[in-house]
Amino acid sequence: MKVILAGYNLDTEVIEGLKHGETNRQDITPEVLSASYARISRDPRPVNELRAAARAEVEKARKSNQNIIFKMGHHSVAEHAVFNFDILGVSRFALEELEKFRLCSYTEKSQRYQVLEDVVFVPEEIEKAGLADLFLATVKAQNDLYRRLIENKVEAEDARYVTALATPAQLGMTLNARNLELLFRRFASHPLSEIRKLGREMYNQVKDIAPSIILFTEANPLDRDTYQELRAQNTEHRTQGKAELKEVGLVDYTQNADQKLIAALLHSTSDIPYEDCLNRSKAMKADEQKKILMTAFKNMEFYDSTLREFEFTDLTFELIVSSACFGQLKRHRMATITAQAYDPSLGVTIPSAVDQAEFEPIVKKTEAAYQAILKSAPQAAPYILTGAHRKRVLFKCNARELYHISRLREDRHAQWDIQNISREMVKQAKKVMPLTMLTIGGKDVYPEVYKKVFGVNPSIIP
To answer: Is residue 380 part of a domain?
Structure first.
């Protein structure tokens, strides 16, 4: 594992001074910006003068940050400090934890397009359990098949399904100090040593740069204990035997979504209370309702988001997805995503380009190792599972976000696994809110969909 602080934001005057060789400065910290912006609401001076004051007295600025953020509770002030990290050599499994933070930006090394190196991360828990030899032998078998597939011209995006969640990855990450502090607390509370170490490495990079806006970084009962206590209470309710394996199920949605969307559009464009707008929407004939929705869609291009009012209609899906698919699904951070642990009883997703007869022995070997590790180091057992192994995911999004997912993931250039999942989500959404989903579809079919609805081509064709 290697963590590098790639950058952080500075006051412009500080940057200009550094350009002119003023290296012995005390204000090379994003705390200057946080402190000056924190004072805007109560200090009558112009904001540029507040920044000058913060630059001149950094220690005073730090005390101001601590008072305003932590004593007065204005945590948003910490959001003005932004950090960039290079993160290398962490496992794919660890990235699932890292990328849970919604208000952060991630760009990850693609395992779809780049051939993986023959390297593996061995979790500390597995070493302590005396299972490192079993772990490494299993990973070697997985990687040997990966190499054979690549040599036989199977695309990397399909071959990667046979590799372990312990496979190292890398990414660039950008986040503000408020989210960074939250990350530190959660990672310090995490049961896996790799996650705890990642949090410590990131903390060590920033602790001396912004001490006044990153204070609470220790493990805490909420993050450390809550899910474990809920899990302990839930053991008696666990399913006995195999449940139905339904890859996509619409388990909840906004009732009368089309009418409620129309009501929201009426509300935004009138001075009428929402209840009256909803009554008007319900009283409309079908062609009147469709006319309003067509107006909402008429001026859209394939790259445009739907109007904000589409966020008032929600859909909740339960999905069974492969690890490879989840790696893409989790990037839709405006959705609400929770997941169960990986579960070998859910089977595997095998790419059509991979010979099933060749893959199945690796699956059996992998799952035998998983069961052995599960007995001695249960938290670390998923590391040995492959990109093909599955878990259940609860996925809630609004209609606006589903449009975004569909445009990106149903497009013919999208990866086939998430393309299949997205297509089925959209199919089920259309049944319960047909007008809301009137022009949904991948970017590649947008001209066709638009012409079907409006009788003409959109002005810009992808």
So the answer is: no
